[in-house]
Amino acid sequence: MFSIDLADDARLFPLEVWHAEEFLAHMDRGRAFIGEHILLADLVTDLDSARAFLSSYAQKTAADGGRLYGIRVGATLVGGVLFRIFEADAGNCEVGCWLEPAAAGRGLVTGACRVLIDWAFRERGMHRAEWRASAANRKSLAVAERLGMTREGLLRENHLHRGVRQDTEVWAVLAHEWPPAPTA
Hints:
This protein is an alpha+beta fold.
């Protein structure tokens, strides 16, 4: 198995079905924080649902339709990044993320997403990488901005999350815009 350094003590690695117990423990630690804006915390509630979620991404990977990666600090799984959508024929993908609060603020998600987007453009020849996040999720939107993405629009009240309609911001970066210029 491979892994990529994100920091001295942090690594990015493929998150697979055999990580289900570790994945569930991670979700249990970060459930309130993670679930504030994304459905993942509500989907992964026991070992069977953890296996089912990881298995769904194994199937997506096998079909070249998505991929899932974990972020470890030391020996502890603290978050992840993914290609939620990966349409190789069309040249479009959507990148997403989640993180426990203890690991927030270290640039781990931004670094991990840079690895994914760089791979998508340079190795797979993708044309467009998209980012969608709740308009209320300021931290996620800040990642999109740090990645050099452009805010393309707002989907008003398009997403029902825990019984509340949310707006979704859509950001994207095109292959010819990558890599982004360094920010001050």
